[in-house]
Amino acid sequence: MITVTGTFTAKKEKTEIILAGAQAVQKASLANDRGCHEYKFHQLSDNPASFFVYEIWEDMESLQKHGNSAHFHEFAALLEGSLDAELDIRVYNAI
């Protein structure tokens, strides 16, 4: 199993656009990506522009295929120029 976590903060004026994009990629990933067990975005309660994503994948091959999907590329393009700071993504192997 592979676990992916990520944090990022949207520019205030882009928060609603990023939220909609996050919901779309989350729904598409869970519905269409083989090996996707969990894909959930969260917003920080005292700063809705701050997001956290938590994903669980069956294996690295599944994660890589997700990275090549149209819905992932659409969300990645949406993030370009919309963030206040660099995206922090971490990939963990279950032990």
Strand count:
4
Structure class? alpha+beta
Regions with pLDDT < 50 over 5+ consecutive residues? none
Order of helices and strands: EHEEHHE
Please bin the fraction of helical residues.
25-40%
Give the overall silhouette. globular
Separation, N- and C-terminal Cα atoms = 9 Å
Q: β content, as a range? A: 35-45%
- Biggest beta sheet summary: 4 strands, antiparallel
Helical segment count: 3
User: How much is the average pLDDT?
Assistant: 96
Rg on CA atoms, Å? 13 Å
Biggest sheet strand order reads: 2-3-1-4
Can you characterise this structure?
By secondary structure, the protein is α+β, with helices and mostly antiparallel strands. 38% of the residues lie in helices and 36% in strands. It has 3 helices and 4 strands. The chain has helices at residues 15-32, 60-67, 70-79, and strands at 2-9, 36-44, 47-57, 88-93. Strands 2-3-1-4 form a 4-stranded antiparallel beta sheet. It is globular and about 35 Å long. The N and C termini lie close together (9 Å). The model has no long low-confidence stretch (mean pLDDT 96).
Ordered list of secondary-structure elements with their pairings:
Elements: E1 2-9, H1 15-32, E2 36-44, E3 47-57, H2 60-67, H3 70-79, E4 88-93
Antiparallel strand pairs: 1-3, 1-4, 2-3
Helix pairs in contact: 1-3
A few lines on this structure:
This protein is an alpha+beta fold and 95 residues long. The protein has helices spanning 15-32, 60-67, 70-79, and strands at 2-9, 36-44, 47-57, 88-93.
